[in-house]
């Protein structure tokens, strides 16, 4: 089972989802052409930085070890 997620787009190609504990995560696929000196357009257009950000945590505790988070990502 997965959490429902939505695509927000933007410069970082962001996706968001909310867990059963009401924590909100942002998944980012940021284009990273600056990593290469190559001028190979195919490589540059298909290279991304992948980030997982905890955008909102309703408690001061660390989020639980929720297996649906990994499956959703």
Automatic annotation (TrEMBL):
Taxonomic superkingdom: Bacteria
Protein name: Uncharacterized protein
Native source organism of the sequence: Flavobacterium restrictum
